[in-house]
Amino acid sequence: MTFSALDSALLGPLFASAEMRYVFSDEARLEAMLRVEQALARAEAEHGIAPAGLADAIGAITPRQFDIAALGEKTALAGVPTIPFVAALQKLLPEDLRGYVHKGATTQDIVDTALVLQLRDAFALLQADLFALIDGLKALGLHHAETPCAGRTLGQQATPVTFGFKVAVWLTGIANAASALPALKERVLKASLGGPVGTLASLGEKGPAIAETFARELGLQPAPIAWHAIRSPMAETGAWLVILLGALAKMADDVIFLSSTEVGEVAEPHIPGRGGSSAMPHKRNPVSSIVILAAQAAAKAHVVTLFDAMISAQERSPGRWQAEWLALPQLFGLASGALREAASLAKGLEVYPQRMMKNLNITGGLLFAEAAAARLSAKLGRIEAHALIEEAARQVRDTGKSLQAVLKEPAFVERMQGMPVDEAFDLKPFVDTAAFWVRTAIEATESADALRRGGGNGV
Amino acid sequence: MTFSALDSALLGPLFASAEMRYVFSDEARLEAMLRVEQALARAEAEHGIAPAGLADAIGAITPRQFDIAALGEKTALAGVPTIPFVAALQKLLPEDLRGYVHKGATTQDIVDTALVLQLRDAFALLQADLFALIDGLKALGLHHAETPCAGRTLGQQATPVTFGFKVAVWLTGIANAASALPALKERVLKASLGGPVGTLASLGEKGPAIAETFARELGLQPAPIAWHAIRSPMAETGAWLVILLGALAKMADDVIFLSSTEVGEVAEPHIPGRGGSSAMPHKRNPVSSIVILAAQAAAKAHVVTLFDAMISAQERSPGRWQAEWLALPQLFGLASGALREAASLAKGLEVYPQRMMKNLNITGGLLFAEAAAARLSAKLGRIEAHALIEEAARQVRDTGKSLQAVLKEPAFVERMQGMPVDEAFDLKPFVDTAAFWVRTAIEATESADALRRGGGNGV
Amino acid sequence: MTFSALDSALLGPLFASAEMRYVFSDEARLEAMLRVEQALARAEAEHGIAPAGLADAIGAITPRQFDIAALGEKTALAGVPTIPFVAALQKLLPEDLRGYVHKGATTQDIVDTALVLQLRDAFALLQADLFALIDGLKALGLHHAETPCAGRTLGQQATPVTFGFKVAVWLTGIANAASALPALKERVLKASLGGPVGTLASLGEKGPAIAETFARELGLQPAPIAWHAIRSPMAETGAWLVILLGALAKMADDVIFLSSTEVGEVAEPHIPGRGGSSAMPHKRNPVSSIVILAAQAAAKAHVVTLFDAMISAQERSPGRWQAEWLALPQLFGLASGALREAASLAKGLEVYPQRMMKNLNITGGLLFAEAAAARLSAKLGRIEAHALIEEAARQVRDTGKSLQAVLKEPAFVERMQGMPVDEAFDLKPFVDTAAFWVRTAIEATESADALRRGGGNGV
Amino acid sequence: MTFSALDSALLGPLFASAEMRYVFSDEARLEAMLRVEQALARAEAEHGIAPAGLADAIGAITPRQFDIAALGEKTALAGVPTIPFVAALQKLLPEDLRGYVHKGATTQDIVDTALVLQLRDAFALLQADLFALIDGLKALGLHHAETPCAGRTLGQQATPVTFGFKVAVWLTGIANAASALPALKERVLKASLGGPVGTLASLGEKGPAIAETFARELGLQPAPIAWHAIRSPMAETGAWLVILLGALAKMADDVIFLSSTEVGEVAEPHIPGRGGSSAMPHKRNPVSSIVILAAQAAAKAHVVTLFDAMISAQERSPGRWQAEWLALPQLFGLASGALREAASLAKGLEVYPQRMMKNLNITGGLLFAEAAAARLSAKLGRIEAHALIEEAARQVRDTGKSLQAVLKEPAFVERMQGMPVDEAFDLKPFVDTAAFWVRTAIEATESADALRRGGGNGV
Known about the structure:
Fumarase C, Chain B, domain 1, Ribonucleotide Reductase Protein R1, domain 1, 3 domains, elongated
């Protein structure tokens, strides 16, 4: 049953990775809830208020022992999954242990901490894919650091760059997002144990110590105060994922334009069976880029839901908290598919330098107009130089001659006061400066990256 | 596997109705795709370009004959579900018919028309629930047309209304949304058959006639031009659903405040097992209102995705169209659950007139301050009257006396120039005017409603 | 002072029309508030509760008599503009009339009704521009109904269409939006007069009649119940504007691609001084399309604010209502600029049929692959036909030969069982079907249009 | 002229601080553009490609020397403000210097760097307000660390907390946002100097050095690669502002509920003339909270525009970049007003401990139900204990007796096996645990805060 294409057996594999699909499966959710109750039992046993055997008894139970459909029906009645879950869990335990399960905790503690455990797995998957993607883009950028290519602004050819420069721009955007991940995880991966209103009052003086043990058991940080009604970590997570997707979508959007029939400078990797058309046997559709753009388009709006969830009324919010369940996991699903496709692009993008060179020539040299104007400025002043080039450009468009040829016509030679402009049509300076920035960008990425890959054991 | 809580076996039943869950199940989607291919076959047979037996042969096939997981894997490769679906469908047909399947159509024709069939079922479910809800609110509003209740603006008690007046406001908002449904369905329930780029060129001169027969076969309208790249009907559908949810959420938000412990004027219907707390056995949480607010909170943002899908590049959009699959069905899921809960509220809301009366008295008569000022204005002028009442109100807050008592103190009597104000504290005029508007609003709803329920045969 | 670029003296003229800028100026807002108080005075005089001269006295006052900056400071203190406005208005009136101003009304009545008056003017401006735009697109579409052009799906050339077909798709999307305007105006152009909580209790039995006269005075509809807390008309207005902008943005997005240096099939109208680059004298940037895309990008999100404003707590919302003031007018500003630019595009778009023809040829005939496959299907069956064409297409890409040439090679001729395919490469059937749909779409538009332009006197 | 209420002379002062209004005024924008051109001139002079006197000559020019309305008209034509600005600037310079202005730069360099200068001022304003707010909340939280107050979840009273605990939750949310500001500024406060396509090719080998000097002149960081098409810093800024507003709105939403007539536990600070009603002289509306909620409601959606702007096509985006101008500054305006009001709340909120105590008693002791159940669990087991308390709670609701009284009735005493429950009704443990978390939260805030206030010289 699938309201979200992500959850569809038919469409889901296109949009999310199998690993991420597992992380957010009902089974994984139940597994996480079990681990949370187990950690609570262990913490409470350590502090003498639960029997020693409870944690192990819970640990022996698996999600498959639950009738999920029945839990679902009871959740629809109760309004929260925890009540039927705890009742079902109790039935699976020896009678003498049942009364100690879930002691002092509230629904939100279990649901939020279980979610954090899922997020930890989800972040790990994304992080691995991010590393692979970044490595792929570095290699691609370096390889084409000096491959000339038209620079395009506002939809029009402007002046030359290199293909590696484009890749370095993609890389920098993606690496920026990646570099924010460690700090984000530190803020998000916190256990929740506050009891009904966050003070853990029912555990009395032992409350704070139990909360700390509980967090440690799960490899999470304890919170300085219950975050039942402090939802910024979830909002930040959503914003980060959409910013990541924005960086990927920048690449995808460029690839779609560059691989259009008329531009033809790149093509998505050739994978047999991929990108076909049901009606047009010759087509190779840019499926990877499509998946990435669709992910960004569907993801961005979920963040508004998460922003609003911060307005968490009083000690627990009626409605906005529950909306997180509808929004947050989808963002991870969308990111997983988009990252998978982006990595595939980075690794296998087909690049056609000859077509790039051909496109550089279709304007009859107008790409060099700015360079010519800049050179002329030194002698004629900026204003006169621009006016002259603008007029020459008009003749290029009207006559089909090249700019270089037009500028050699007597009328222009005279106005240029004999100043030579041939050098303005040399690609080398464009290539050199572009390649310089490719190297600078990759270095900047690497220094952040070293920090990142080395840093953080476990978190 | 569930990225959206709607699709979860554990949480989904809380948020969506079982009927709507079926409408958007993978099975129903395949069923709809089969019906579309069948209608295409029938239309092409009628116009002599497909064998007569094809449609029936397709009609005999059921979704269960497909290996959905395998289709999903192939969809992830191909980028669209139609290619593997058509291939699998062909395998289920006699060899001599296989070549005629899907003739002249494109992926988008099948996916869009199948979606429209699902939307038709989804609209029908919502419409039935809307009728029930509106009937429930009319009865509730009439019943309490004269039940006095505090009016509250900007979070503060203002002047008296009746509870029926509040219900009439809810009703009007919801009825407004309902009245827009017939015209919306007319715009949305259109078949799509345009072939690769929308012109149906491969069917030649017969194209338009086949498109018309195809639409008629499915009980849909034909489109005046292919809507592959005209996505406003989907955007309008999303906007309508969120506006409907907004009208429901207005009610839910009011119910949550009115049922808060301190206000206590209403309570959600008592349903055994509903609204309990895992930690606090005495609580009755407003689950219906929570579901409605969560639905609105999660839904609103999807509309942005649908708005953007309108920017459908050239003859078919790479990315934005696919994002519709991620956004649109969820809106119906959220609406289904919210409507179910709203109907439950309208039918069973517990209303406590005594508590309403008690709350009307807690300000010591300040609710009547505006009425008193209005009466005094006639004699003192509006400015002096307001100043006098403002001063009296201050004394009410400072001394705990009632406004009526303060105004009878000599200092005020003198300033009021002997004008009596007792009548300003009479509830009756407030109740009468409120009841008048309840009747007016219900009448307005009914005239629109008559039109609506009578109108539209089938659509 | 400009937080929104729309309001900037420097940037605003780029994004909004001068007429719309006036409609939402502070001066126009004050003017509207004056007209509302005047109508209230007239209605109350007609029903005997205000002096006959008050309305005329208010009518003689102009916005320039107010110190707007001083009002602004007092609004920041009071929290609403009406309190200082009414106080300032009273000071401008003869003493004996002052006490009767604003009688029975509440802040929201004045602010909402004044807004509706502004919206009426704003709708009228948009409607006129929409007519001009639609007329322009009809002419453009008809003119190029038979101008061959590549159809492109998912970023790739697919099969041929005509340029008029593209225009007809733009037109249909825009005309769809236009056709919804009359019904929208009917729902939105309602007066608000409900007093503090919506019942107009302080006017007693005369309330409803005064409300009706008040509305009539302003040329507006009366509301069946106060809409202080029923905000769907504002949400619908926002959604409609963004759907309109989406339809315009579809056109702009297509124009940007089609006018890119490599595609070059259209260019924005040449207007001296427009679209230049500060650095590149030769460039002609697609300014109109940029303005339209920026408008849609900035507009879409405001609708979420308006959707949320529907959850209007109790009898008046603390916060969400006020957010409408920040969101709604901007949508009209953005629409005004986008429509102006769209009309300019429709009227003056430069179209290059020769370049279209050239682009149709760059794939070596692959655009005709689907047609060839369709023809072969009749003999070979759909599956074999597709396989054959796919193989031929591969040879086209590998060898640079045309598809037609490849299919004439012996190996293919044999597999095709002698079936001729030359006819598949004929543009005529593509042009004919495309032209058919252009005419159908324009007719559909016209029937809706006739209704629309004829219908509605005044509203 | 005001499409955004922020820019209105009438409404703007309510929503934005005067200081922030100046930062984003047209005058300040021109001033920033002048400083950017001046810095460029100085950097180019230092590297020998501009005359030494140019920078000082530009430095002597003030915004008032420009005819902003004329620039606006020309911007509407040109599509960007830089072209007419540079032309007008040249006219204000001695003729021999004119040709050197803006050398090598592109429109986006000037607009983006000027924006960054405005953002630097805007951040500084917000930071100062944040410090004041945090200090106010710490004092408020400590003062009421032990003031008992009902904890409320899902709209219902749950178990007791203290008012200081609520404040500590507000504080933690806001301090979380504050702690992210230094790192954010580091990512945002970067100069832009890339020339037409980002490579600064027209400055040749000197480009990188000039870019570095240019940044240093302005006190900004240089970028490792041009960020013309890397817009994550703007998206992050928007997300941060909305997260900050979410944390403020959490407080405002709580204040509105707590200050409602029926709850009455707090009131917004009394400021003469504030919060009055045009119709109801006695009302004191929560204006500060309203401004904060409106700000969040209007702000959140702008972030979607900024997220989309990341998909910056090729080397400069047609449309999405320009949309930033419409979205980003408003976020600062909204934040400035909301922070001002939040600081006012933190400093002057009126707190009524007696009313809090009164509200703690209205459920007849049901707030202690969880504590009673917890105590009974030790002896009866959790399940039986909950069942018993649930039954007693029902009797409380049915009979109006207190929970403590009901539990002393023989039937219950027997079922409780003589276990005493009086201690469960003691407020002290609730107060003690709440106060513990208040201190913990403030400490956590302070350690982050020390770092923050000390850290970052200049940035």
